[in-house]
Write a structure and sequence with these properties.
The chain is an alpha+beta fold and 1161 residues long. The chain folds into six domains: 174 residues, Up-down Bundle (Multidrug efflux transporter AcrB transmembrane fold), CATH 1.20.1640.10; 93 residues, Alpha-Beta Plaits (2-Layer Sandwich), CATH 3.30.70; 220 residues, Alpha-Beta Plaits (2-Layer Sandwich); 311 residues, Multidrug efflux transporter AcrB transmembrane fold; 98 residues, Multidrug efflux transporter AcrB pore domain (Alpha-Beta Plaits), CATH 3.30.70; 90 residues, Multidrug efflux transporter AcrB pore domain (Alpha-Beta Plaits, 2-Layer Sandwich). Helices cover 50% and strands 18% of the residues. A hairpin with a 4-residue loop joins strand 18 and strand 19. It starts with 9 loop residues before the first helix and ends in a 28-residue tail after the last helix.
Length: 1161
């Protein structure tokens, strides 16, 4: 193999790296930017209207019919529907991750068409809409009349005609819609007393409007065929649809032969109003029209929002005077700040890595090589991300931050070996060639191992799989590029930049102090390695204890999906007593708005009155407020973090008399759930009725609220809403010859609203609706003012045929997966996670509820439950892949075990640090564990690889293990310390997105500390155990002071003649373990028992301290307990070892360098 190819062609090597950088720079400008990759499962929304119908009627006649047909559509995971007293039904079908949303919409629409013949005629005439929906809200644009010259309806319709369509055409916008239906509608407000005076019924009015407000096709004059050929053909037109209130008011209801007529305006008031009056909206207390913008899947959120603001500024030039716009709710603000913080973290990590490298190399020329190599690998990664369709998001950026400490490894391995050879007298060119011959194998092995960990993980399914893929593949790309640069550019730079060291002056004092300290640390490390090589049984016991500790900590660390963040906004739900009017709800929300806007840290409040966001339907006794806080730079106190403000806002609004304000934090992944916390449906699978379902739900909620781990557990369902049950006396109607359908038509036209047909205005079609004036639909006593006509022509008042009685029921009914259900929401109490909350809810449901009632998780809770265990699967899969790759490389099945033994130490460290900090086992932590598998294996590979080389040079297993530990200690510490300091900015992060950075940084840092400070003592021991069977010597001598092992007979001495300790040599791993344990079975049993007992007591003591929020004391409890319980064991097993003898070196740092190979004797 030509190891000097790139060394002899430095320009060629440079060109390769330059091309990599240019490709990365081009791609980084066009990569989409988002908070997360496309994680949300596709959804299809089905909407239907049945004006005037009760929630029960809508559910039975519309929702059930649609659900039965849609159920089981391809790739569906669940569906839910809501029917309310406003006569609307919303059904949402959620599909598995990866489903094509367009195909899903087609499939659902085909199922809806099957159900259409079974739906009520009114529902069919109004139509059933089927649309794919992206529940990820990009932002809210508001339009308002600042001088009050235009009503909300006028501003809304202006936005509908002149703004909405323009916004929908912007690339990246999935949908743009006005919240609350403010479409124009020709409203006919009937006066039942006038109708009775003229002996008319609402049915007569409806028939007259339909007859006279219609389009008719007339034809043409002179059209073919014709008997007499004419010169022209004329189209014939006539008056079709009416347009104005005057034209509708002139509709003739009655007329006689004398020319007298009764017109619609004589019995009704005509108004160009809105299609519905169930909602109202404001921005900072002023009437406003909110326009919700949804992001298209895979679109660039930042670029899309920028384009929206640019287009709105252009459209605003033609706005009517006094109409203004703003963007109070902008999710890209959090995305932008979060990504900026990660970029700052990235820069800090890069600087810290450079400092560490320079501190160890103590040569600016040498430091320059990894400083050049690292940015090439990082920048080039963007090209790979573009090819694979990734975006710049939190996960890929975290991958790049961790990659800084990983990619520096390969260049350092090459550089460190070249420097050693230069110090031995070679020229830089020859040293570079020889170094490539020696380290090409380890570099390729490290790249293969890391790729074998990360690449297979990307094939996992589900939402967690998408997150793993973006993170893992990003690191894998950077690792491959790092290996390429290390094998091409790094040796060429070493040949050009490195020089023989001149002894012209003393090194800097800081370097002198560092070298002394590191020599002392190296001596301590070598004594530790020697101790465990002499006390294999104790080493095995410690390893078992570490594995047990990892098992215990896995149980202790609570689970979660992703950590909650301060996203700069909160959602405040308004709840009033059942059946409260819209005006009453509006009054409560106005008071709350004033309270919020008086807080200096709050910037905007967008209020929507009459919308129950929790249940997803219209309700006059509910409302929602989007509370937007000022920038994070203006909220630096912990008390101003939105995660800590829920209790504060509840306390500030607790004085409101008529209603209750419930502020909550938004979900960590926008669009996956309505709120943060947990969310599930309680299903009635036996048809026992909503009343019994409500009782069971209240029993579960009451028990849940008694648990200290849970808070704010509640349901959106209310079974005690005051209602009237109207019973038609069918026998009386039959006796009086009144058609039953005319009775219901009159009721619907009076107390509901009837859609008649459409009219055209400003080039758009709007609905014509009929309803009685408000004064005639207040109480059941108003029935006596409404009349119907018998078949004999007599006018009969409705109170003679209809009887009303007071009842209680629900004004909103929910269904989940074709079963009656009700939604239950809640949040974990401070200090607990959603994983713990889910576990407790499932346990309570199992203990309290009959079998007919089941818990069904939705949203982020569903994803957390279904993705549970995937992190462990990914980690185990990564370990298996590392083992297989190393087995293939070494052509041995046993030797990779020496590498794998480093992984439990890293896992234990990650779990311990995460637990002590009070964090959770979430997706970020699990991603970090996958990275730790590769990183811990990388350190072990350096020892095992060089130990194998030492074995090939004639040394036995003991000598090879000890010598490899001595040679590779310095580069292991240098690269590991560079990585640890590289993730330090993640651990100490603050501001937007800091919780995610803490989650991944804390675990990775703890794992690497354990892998670097503890695991490296045991890797040589396991290498010795595994390979000692091939030694045929009768004994091996190991000096206790840190020198190299010396064989008893044959072979060249590797160190000074020091005090020797005999270690028997067995043949094979099984014999070694059996011989050691057979001689001291009782002692080993006592060791294991004490280790397990000590671990249990330490964990309990630390847990008690953590519950009191004392992490420092928790760590102290662990240390004191373990030290107290294990000190007798260590005292019995260890022998006092003298300080290591330090040889004088031409280079102070050479203690950890690879020495010249000894010739066989």
């Amino acid at each position: 193999m030509n190891y000097g190819f790139f060394i002899n062609r430095p320009v060629f090597a440079s060109v390769i790296s330059i091309i990599i950088v240019l490709a990365g720079l081009v791609c980084v400008r066009i990569l989409p930017v988002a908070q997360y990759p496309d994680l949300l499962p596709p959804e299809v929304a089905v909407q239907a209207q049945y004006p005037g119908a009760s929630a029960q009627t809508v559910a039975q006649t519309v929702a059930v019919q649609l659900e039965q047909q849609i159920n089981g559509v391809d790739n569906m995971i669940y569906m839910k529907s809501t029917s309310n007293a406003a006569g609307t039904m919303g059904l949402t079908v959620t599909f598995a991750q990866g489903t094509n949303p367009d195909q899903a919409t087609i499939n659902v629409n085909n199922r809806v068409q099957r159900a259409m013949p079974n739906l009520p005629d009114t529902v069919q005439r109004l139509g059933v809409t089927v649309d794919k929906r992206n529940s990820a809200i990009l932002g809210v644009v508001t339009m308002q009349s600042t001088n009050g010259s235009y009503s909300r309806a006028q501003v809304g319709n202006y936005a509908l005609v002149n703004v909405i369509d323009d916004l929908k055409r912007i690339p990246g916008v999935g949908d743009a819609s006005i919240f609350g239906n403010v479409n124009y509608s020709m409203r006919i407000w009937l006066r039942p007393d006038k109708l009775a005076q003229y002996e008319l019924t609402p049915t007569d009015v409806i028939a007259a409007v339909r007859e006279q407000n219609n389009d008719y096709a007339i034809g043409r004059f002179g059209d073919q065929p014709e008997k007499v050929s004419g010169a022209y053909t004329y189209s014939a037109t006539t008056q079709g649809r009416l347009k104005t209130t005057e034209e509708f008011g002139n509709i003739i209801l009655k007329s006689d032969t004398n020319g007298a007529s009764l017109k619609l305006k004589d019995v009704a008031r005509l108004e160009l109003g809105t299609q519905q009056y169930f909602t109202d909206s404001r921005h900072n207390g002023d009437p406003a029209v909110p326009i919700m913008i949804n992001l298209q899947p895979g679109a660039n959120a930042m670029a899309t929002m920028t384009a929206i603001k640019t287009r709105m500024a252009e459209l605003a030039r033609s706005f009517p005077p006094g109409v203004e716009w703003s963007v109070p709710y902008d999710t890209t603000t959090f995305i932008n700040v979060s990504i900026e913080e990660v970029v700052h973290t990235f820069i800090e990590a890069l600087i810290l890595v450079i400092i560490v490298v320079y501190l160890f190399l103590q040569n600016w020329r040498a430091t320059l090589i990894p400083v050049i190599a690292v940015p090439i690998s990082i920048i080039g990664t963007f090209a790979g991300m573009y090819v694979l369709g990734f975006s710049i998001n939190m996960l890929t950026l975290f991958g790049l931050v961790l990659a800084i400490g990983i990619v520096v490894d390969d260049a350092i391995v090459v550089l460190e070996n070249v420097e050693r050879l230069v110090e031995e007298g070679m020229t830089p060119h020859d040293a570079a060639v020889e170094s490539m011959r020696e380290v090409s194998g380890p570099v390729i092995a490290i790249v293969l191992v890391l790729c074998s960990v990360f690449i297979p993980v990307s094939f996992m399914g589900g939402m967690a799989g998408v997150m793993y893929k973006q993170f893992a593949i990003t690191i894998a790309i950077s690792v491959v590029l790092s290996g390429l640069v290390a094998l091409t550019l790094a040796p060429a730079l070493c040949s050009l930049l490195l020089k023989h060291k001149d002894d012209k002056g003393a090194p800097w004092k800081v370097f002198v102090l560092f070298n002394r300290a590191f020599e002392w640390i190296t001596g301590c490390y070598l004594r530790g390695v020697g101790f465990f090589l002499r006390h294999v049984v104790l080493g095995l016991a410690v390893f078992v204890a570490v594995c047990l500790a990892a098992f215990v900590l896995f149980k202790k660390v609570p689970g979660a999906l992703v950590p909650a963040e301060d996203q700069g906004n909160m959602i405040a739900f308004t709840m009033l007593p059942p059946a409260s009017s819209l005006a009453r709800t509006d009054n409560v929300m106005r008071q709350a708005e004033k309270i919020f806007l008086n807080m200096p840290i709050i910037d905007h409040v967008v209020s929507i009155v009459g919308y129950d966001m929790l249940a997803g339907g219209l309700k006059p006794s509910a409302g929602v407020m989007f509370v937007i806080f000022k920038d994070w730079s203006e909220r630096k106190k912990a008390s101003q973090d939105t995660r800590n403000l829920v209790g504060t806002l509840i306390g500030m609004t607790s004085g409101l008399k008529d209603g209750f304000i419930l502020p909550v934090n938004p979900p960590p992944i926008i669009g996956l759930s309505t709120t943060g916390g947990f969310q599930f449906y309680l299903q009635d699978r036996a048809g026992n009725g909503y009343s019994e379902l409500y009782k069971q739900a209240q029993k579960l909620i009451a028990a849940a609220n008694q648990r200290p781990e849970l808070s704010q557990v509640r349901t959106t369902f209310d079974a005690n809403v005051p209602q009237y049950d109207l019973q038609v006396d069918r026998a009386q109607a039959r006796a009086m010859n009144v058609p039953i359908d005319s009775i219901y038509d009159a009721l619907s036209a009076t107390f509901g609203n009837v859609y008649i047909n459409d009219f055209t205005l400003y080039g758009r079609n709007y609905q014509v609706k009929l309803q009685s004036e408000a004064e005639f639909r207040q109480t059941p006593e108003d029935l006596k003012q409404v009349f119907v006509r018998s078949t004999g022509g007599e006018m009969v008042p409705l109170d003679a045929l209809v009887h009303a009685r007071r009842i209680v029921g629900s004004d909103q009914l929910e269904r989940f997966n074709i079963f009656p259900a009700m939604m239950v929401l809640g949040a974990p109490a401070p200090g607990y996670t959603t994983g713990e909350a889910i576990r407790i809810i499932e346990q309570l449901a199992q203990d309290l509820l009959p079998r007919d009632y089941q818990v069904a998780w939705v949203g982020s809770s569903y994803q957390e439950v279904t993705n549970s265990g995937q992190g462990n699967t990914a980690m185990i899969f990564g370990i298996i892949m590392v083992f297989l790759i190393l087995a293939a490389q070494y052509e041995r099945w046993s030797l990779p075990l020496a590498v794998i033994t480093a992984v439990p130490f890293a896992i234990t460290g990650a779990l311990l640090f995460t637990w002590l900090r009070g964090l959770s086992n979430d997706v970020y932590f699990q991603i970090g564990l996958v990275a730790l598998v590769g990183l811990a294996s990388k350190n072990a590979i350096l020892i095992v690889e060089f130990a194998s080389q030492e074995r090939e040079s004639g040394k036995n297993a003991m000598e090879a293990a000890y010598s490899a530990a001595q040679m590779r200690f310095r580069p292991i510490i240098m690269t590991s310390l560079a990585f640890i300091l590289g993730v330090l900015p993640l651990v100490r992060a603050s501001g937007a997105g800091s919780a995610s950075r803490h989650a991944i940084g804390t675990g990775v840092m703890g794992g690497m500390l354990f892998a670097t400070c503890i695991a490296i003592f045991f890797v040589p021991m396991f290498y010795y155990i595994i390979t000692r069977g091939s030694d045929k010597k009768t004994g091996v001598t190991l000096p206790p002071n840190g020198g190299a092992p010396t064989p008893q007979s044959g072979g060249a001495p590797a160190g000074a003649a020091l005090a020797r300790v005999k270690i028997p040599a067995q043949t094979g791993l099984v014999q070694a373990g059996t011989g050691a344990l057979a001689g001291s079975a009782a002692a080993f049993s006592r060791i294991i028992h004490k280790l397990y007992a000590a671990g249990g007591r330490a964990v309990k003591a630390a847990a008690a301290a953590m519950r009191r929020r004392q992490p420092v004391k928790a760590a102290k409890n662990i240390t004191e307990t373990v030290t107290h319980d294990l000190s007798p064991l260590v005292d019995d097993a260890a022998e006092p070892l003298p300080k290591p003898a330090v040889r004088k070196k031409t280079r102070p740092a050479a203690a950890g360098r690879l020495p010249k190979k000894q010739k066989k004797q």
